[in-house]
Amino acid sequence: MAAESATPDQPRCMFPQTRALEVHLPAGFEVADTSRLIWLAKRAGFNTILLNCFRQGYTTFLSETMRAYGFPDQDPQFRGNDPVAPILAAARAESVKTYALVEGLCVGGAMGRRGPILRRRPEWGVRGRERLGRASNPPYLCPVNHDVRRFLGDLFHEILEGYSFQGLYVRHLHYPLEQPNQRAGFCCCDYCHRAVWHSLGVKLNEIPDDPDHPDRYNLTSWQGKQLTGLLRYLRLRAAKVSERSLVLAEAYLGYGDERLPPESFGYADGCSWAENRLAPIAVFRPLPGTCESDEGWIRRIIAMTQCALVMPVLSASPESKLTEILQRLAFEPVAGVVICEPYDLTAPPLTQLVRGPWREPSQIAEDQPAVSVCALLAETVKRLPPDDPVRAFLADVLRILEPLSGRWSATQRESLYENLLGLEERIADERIVLGNTTPAVLRNFRLARQLLRLMEAEL
């Protein structure tokens, strides 16, 4: 935990903080490489692995579900080998948590190449609106199609039932962004034609492109609701395996003086998902063309922490400003970060983190929120002088709540939430003066309040 002498000029890591590393196993990956991979990740300061299990329409493991639907039962490059089980075993030995990284609706490769699912079931795919006699058909599944939903639910259920993952990390839960303007169109498959007519009473091919037209506005809202419904369905399927299975969903986050249209985000409303707690943590990725180190985007991430637990997706390429961004976020109530490819675990900037913003160890934020709340309150107590009344109050809270092992009543949770909010307001208004510990204390209180709300979240 951070020392009492920490100041804003000496950023300390947040506690708790989920530090997640995206892992895509390369062709030719050997089981013998497993221990070194996990060791390097742990040495770099990561406490969570996002292990790719479903990518470009293939599973890393041998899948009975894929076989039952008539698809290849495993990615050919891993044929005869199950790399998932040994990685989970190695991670468990190092106390590293693991999520199954799944590419939800994207089932193809680079340059629009279609994977095996759409080659066998082309009617499942998103179909673009015909222009100049041809249609753009990106390698994405249609989220409206009930057969698609059932397939994804069955596949993800198999992953969680067959392996001891913490939960699912779902990427590409949006309509495809198309060139050149990086905005999504709307799906014109036969299934959507019928569903739009049934839901909105209009013919899909007669809806104009004018975004201000009532029919187009209603269609935009309707498409966003389909993605929200799919996320809710996947959460329910995960809960059937285990009530402790978590589902994290990644979405795009933009910023600017003007509100960006929903098609810029592929109609996935990550802000709404966060505010309505459809996922325990809102994971946000910059829009294509947006620099993650841009101050405007970082401020937008910080603003989102007011309504949810938030993690930004950051890159770790040599030219990235990863260390500077983490230092910028050190005193903000973000729940953690996700580091995406490309990266090198043996080179900067990842080898620099444990000597900088990650020099203190941490635990994941979302696993046991009651434990995380107590850790934040205890860390705050250590920062405050012995005669401080805020310190005395927090010490009393810990004496009451810690022995309960997370079995806190709704009244206790709500009372603590309101007390922390009241203290925040008085500290921010300088009615309570804490000196150079103020940024860290405010961060801890805000993060603790979001964790208390997570304890109340229900499917």
Structural features:
globular; TIM Barrel; 2 domains; 8-stranded parallel barrel; disordered N terminus; 14 helices; 11 strands; two-stranded antiparallel sheet; alpha/beta; 459 residues
Description:
There is one protein chain. With 459 residues, the protein is of the alpha/beta class. It folds into two domains: 18-360, Glycosidases (TIM Barrel, Alpha-Beta Barrel); 370-456. 38% of the residues lie in helices and 12% in strands. The chain contains 14 helices and eleven strands. Helix 9 links the parallel strand 9 and strand 10 (310-315). Helix 11 (369-383) packs antiparallel against helix 12 (389-401), helix 11 (369-383) runs antiparallel to helix 14 (438-456) and helix 13 runs antiparallel to helix 14 (438-456). The chain is globular and about 70 Å long. 44% of the residues are buried. Residues 1-14 and 131-135 have low confidence and may be disordered.
Q: In angstroms, what separates the terminal alpha carbons?
A: 33 Å
Instruction: Enumerate the spans where pLDDT stays under 50 for 5 or more consecutive residues.
Output: 1-14, 131-135
Count of spatially separate domains: 2
Strands in their spatial order, largest beta sheet:
1-2-4-5-8-9-10-11
User: Mind telling me the CATH class of the largest domain?
Assistant: Alpha Beta
Shape: globular
CATH topology of the largest domain: TIM Barrel
Roughly what is the average pLDDT, rounded to an integer?
Answer: 88
CATH superfamily of the largest domain: Glycosidases
CATH architectural label of the largest domain: Alpha-Beta Barrel
Q: State which percent range the strand residues make up.
A: 5-15%
Main β sheet profile? 8 strands, parallel, barrel
Count the strands? 11
Number of helices: 14
- From N to C, what is the helix and strand string? EHEEHHEHHEEEHHEHEHEHEHHHH
- SS-based class: alpha/beta
Round the Cα radius of gyration to an integer and report it.
23 Å
Helix percentage: 25-40%
